Structures are given as structure tokens and as C-alpha cells.
Amino acid sequence: MTPEREAELRAEFEQKYGRQPHCDSDKGGGSLAYDRWALKLSGWLQAHEDSEMAKDAGRYRWLRDCCRSSGEHWGGRWSIIVDGPVPKTHNDSDDFDAAIDSAIKDTQ
């Protein structure tokens, strides 16, 4: 998970469950409320990471099943062509994910 995505999810978490409670770490430990909040946040982040990994795995399997080698034309390199929405930026993985998701939806 990228730091940007983690910050985004943390903001969603704080909006839903409230901001981080005060922690008295300078007095030898955290508060019980802080510990509970931190544990809940950790579970929230892990669940989202697991969900994103499952989506990536599905995208990979779809690409693997749709791609073909073109060794006679490209020296053994694989060629991937995905019909999807026009990218918003150059070489953005989120745009590539969106194109794959759109192509998957079109083939179902």
C-alpha cells in the first residue's frame, strides 16, 4: 500500500470512527482508548490492503488468460492491449487498473 493510499484510508477511518485519542506516551504508556483505536485502525488498513490485493490478483489472472505471446514479431516480448478509458496521466497504475476493470466488465 502506498503512503498516499494509507493516508487516504486513515482519513476515511477518522471520519467514520473519530480522531486518534490522546496518548500519554511520555508517562510510560498509551491509554486504553488509544490502544483500542490503534488496533481498530490496524484492522481497517489490513482489510483494505487484503481487498486491494485480491482485486490485483483477479486483474492479473484476467490479463494472463487474455494475453498471447507475439514472439515472431517482437523477439519473445509479450504484448498487452487493453481497451478501456483514456488515461488521465502518463504511466499511472490507477489508470491502468481502471482500464483493466473496464475491459473485464465488458467481457462478462
List the defining traits of the structure above.
mainly alpha, 4 helices, 2 domains, 64% helix, 4% strand, 108 residues, elongated, two-stranded antiparallel sheet
Explain the overall architecture.
This protein is mainly alpha-helical. The chain folds into two domains: 1-66; 68-108, no CATH class. It is built from four helices and two strands. The chain has helices at 3-17, 32-66, 71-74, 93-107; strands spanning 68-69, 78-79. It has a two-stranded antiparallel sheet. α1 crosses α2 and α2 (32-66) crosses α4.
Number of beta strands: 2
Taking the alpha carbons of the first and last residues, their distance comes to 28 Å
Strand order of the largest sheet: 1-2
Number of domains: 2
In terms of DSSP E residues, the strand content is under 5%
What structural class do the secondary elements suggest? mainly alpha
Helix percent reads 55-70%
Average predicted local confidence, pLDDT:
76
Spatial extent as radius of gyration: 21 Å
Envelope shape: elongated
Order of helices and strands: HHEHEH
Report a brief summary of the structure.
The chain has 108 residues and is mainly α.
Task: Set down the secondary structure blueprint.
Layout: H1 3-17, H2 32-66, E1 68-69, H3 71-74, E2 78-79, H4 93-107
Antiparallel strand pairs: 1-2
